[in-house]
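Morning F.,

Quick status update on the modeling queue. The single chain you submitted on Monday has been processed. Sequence for confirmation:
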Amino acid sequence: MEYNKISGIILDTCITVHKIMGPGLLESIYEQCLMKEFELRNVNAKHQAPISLKYKGYELSRELRIDILVENEIILELKSTEIMHPVYEAQIISYLKLTNKKLGFLVNFNVPVLINGFNPTCTPSFGT
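Structure tokens below.
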């Protein structure tokens, strides 16, 4: 699937979950709802997808976990918070670098209108 098509599906899926569940729940609740909605839409998505860590070419014994990986290409980092701290964007940028993915979305479900909590993040070389 191409990025624009997948991105549109992701946005619509997030809006649907937000409309049904409303703001203010735990991130894990939104994660489970999104996974069910992706399943209903026949979209390949993995939750708590592991990222193996490498340092100076050495694989470390610890893994990071991505909230949701869609179509093995797009990372979703879910939040449910009143304040979006800059470290959240740094987190998804680090995930993109570590996985060599080009696109991710930082999604805050604790907003009255979901589009206001839907923030794309790209690796610096994306689109060039």
